[in-house]
Predict the structure.
Amino acid sequence: AAVRGLTDPAARFTAVGRAYLAFGLGNPELFDLMFRATELDRDDPALARAHRESFSILGDIASETAEGSTGNSTDVSLLAWAAAHGLVLLVQGGALQSLTGLTTPDETDAVAHHLTDTFTTLVQPPH
């Protein structure tokens, strides 16, 4: 849904990152539960399928965004996921705010979105 109507690959990539960030920050308990190893049955075929399908969305968009760059789309996808996931955790734990001196949720959101945009810029091939 985050990329509906967007045709530019970089805009699509950024939109997915921002949606992940918004979900993680807006639903901290569910976000935590989704990745809590003690609650996951890694042998559940439905879970494995859902994981692959959700990652393939990111993979397709990363492939469009990084086309022509030196990295492959799987690497870009994994790095994007790690960056977005880590950013959610840094904001949730207050580390981003502490390090940067951010004092309001609006300031924190603005910096988190800026970092998401910056990641997209970094993975695009040089022109």
Summary: The domain at 9-123 is CATH 1.10.357.10 (Tetracycline Repressor; domain 2). The helical segments are 9-26, 28-34, 45-66, 73-93, 95-100, 105-123. The radius of gyration is 15 Å.
